[in-house]
Specification:
globular
Amino acid sequence: MNPMRFFLKPFPGEGNPAGLTIGGSIARRADTLSVRCEVRGDLSKVSIPAAAEAPRRKDRLWEETCLELFLGTADSWEYREFNLSPSGHWNVYRFTRYREGMREEPAIASLSIDVRRDSKALLLTADIGIGKIVPADKDLAAAVAAVIGTIDGGKSHWAPVHPASRPDFHRRDGFALTLPGDG
């Protein structure tokens, strides 16, 4: 399992009032995907959801500060969207094709996110069991992205690449990382 590094940048024109840098790594070993994302900068300007006493599956996490992960395979239009909130809440959606057929992914019934925060950094890590949704021998096309909310109500959209004229993490041409299968 060799981690691949990623660096996110804000969508052009949305700005970066908190002077953030966002980067991390993603790695795959057979049926587990390990994600690590670090947000650095003036976090006093970032709206970070409070830690939940009992993290659970929750909808619409992208409306606040949230890490997003998209996974697909080359031989299918189907893909998954993972939402990981600094609160510890999470969700996984399955799409049949670009923005169509959205429903919660029943194969993933729980997900644990480790969140650490200090005045200058927010670190999210998760080990995600993907064996029930993707065969170990299939290569994965992946995209890592983030939605960052600010305390003044602003929002910015972060990704390694922004292939459209507006923020859109669902586009396959934004799935810029390839995670090889075991086959």
